Structure formats: C-alpha cells, structure tokens
Amino acid sequence: QLIPLFVIIGSGGVGAGLYLMRLAMFNPDVSWDKKNNPEPWNKMSPSDQYKLYSVNMDYSRLKKDRPDF
Amino acid sequence: MANHSQLTLQDAASPIMEELVQFHDHAMMVALAICSLVLYLLTLVLSEKLSSSTVDAQAIELVWTILPAAVLIALALPSLRILYLMDEVNEPDLTLKAIGHQWYWSYEYTDFKDLTFDSYMTPTTDLPLGHFRLLEVDHRVIVPTESTVRVIVTADDVLHSWAVPSLGVKTDAIPGRLNQTSFLANRVGVFYGQCSEICGANHSFMPIVVESVPLANFESWSSLTSS
User: Membrane spanning segments where (chain B) (predicted)?
Assistant: First the structure.
C-alpha cells in the first residue's frame, strides 16, 4: 500500500542526489583541487553550455573571439 | 506605461515579456480554477450538502495528492522554461551601461565614441501638456528595434534598480558590482519604468524611458550625439 510513497520519495531523493553530483563535478564555481585548478571560473569558454537546460540558444555555435585569461 | 486603473501587466514589448504575460495568464487560470473549486466545496459544506461517514479514505487521499502534484508540475515546467530563457547569453548587438546615481540615471554607449548622457526626470512644473507626470525624462535611452541589447547596470552611490516592465527587465544597481541583463525590443515605441530600489528622498523621481527606433534612425542619432 505504501509502494507509491516509496517510489515517489525515492525518485525525488535519487534525483536530488544526481543533481548535487552534477553541480559538484561540472559547476565552474566549485574548486576541489586547490593546487592544480584553483579558480575554474576563469576558464569558462563561450561555446560551453553550463546550465542544465537551454531553451533556444545553441552555445556550441558561438565564436570564441576574446583573448584567454 | 501603466494607467491608473490598470489591472493587468503592461503590453509586452519584448519576446521575454510576451512569454511572461502568457505564463501569467496560464497561472491565473489555474489559480481561478482552484479558488472556484474551493469556494464551491465550501458552499456545499456550509449548506450541509456534503458529509462523510467513511473511515477508509485511501482512494480520495490518493486523488487529492496526485492532482495537486500534477497541477504544480503544470505550473513549474513553463516557469522554469522562462527562467532559463531569461538567463540565456544571446550575442547582443549593442551594449549599454546604466549607472544609477542619487537621483538620476546616466547611460554610456561605449560601443560608440563618447556617447554618454545623464537622464533626469522632467519636473512637473516644466512638463508639456499631454506628457506623463513623474515618468518623462530629458534624455531618453534610444535603442534600435529587433536588436538584442545588453545592459550592464551598476550604481555610483547607493542601491538602485533599473526596471522597464514592458520589456520584462528589472536589474538591481549595486555599487561596486556589474549586473548584466538583456532585452530585445520587438516594436518601435516608448517604454517607461521607474527606479525599483529605495535610494533616498527622490527615489520615486528618477524614471527610466527607453525609446526604440528603427536601426537607421538609431544610427543617425548615435552619430549625431556622439560627435
């Protein structure tokens, strides 16, 4: 009788955990390795998509016309 | 601009604002449906036409959990879509700096050579007949139509906020910080807004006026004013 409860709460928990992992690994605002990669936010390129969902914009086609940091 | 008896949002002048207006209509329908259902059930309960003698409520509890969850998802999906849409970086054609001071805005078009001006509110005593009180300025922000404009907002002294409701733009102006927003005016027109962060005595008297003109007119204006 309680199966739907477990399914819904379980999928919510798993989804939250997965998103947390995504944030930890791919968010340019976090820095794990202070020696080799202290400030990853300085390495953002205009052709990368950083957010989870892009409605209209195809970031891979943007040109990179600025100097490197 | 807003009328004194206006109930709805101002007419949209940018694609983002159109999306926001549509979402508002959608959310309003959901809210009205829920309110009328609750009101109806309330009248049934108060006139004693609704009663319950059940002890096992499993089925109805499932219904009144799943249905609100579905409604919330129907609200969340369009909302998140618009949120992500507003945040997109979309190759602006023009960059404009809006700097808030006490109690006026100054604008810098640094794509051009030396195009900078201050924008003070027109005092009511100097207001020509037919113009909007407390909304007109001496120098309007001119932008070309159908061009993505990036606005970098900051402040010189205290907090301000650069807001133009028809374009769906409101960005806080914080001293020492650059905030970026962008809009696209999809029709010619004059769009009014007001400073949206309390900044002192004349906070209500530092409006923002954006005038969108065809590209040819914008180019002639910018070459005229920057020389």
Answer: 27-47, 59-84
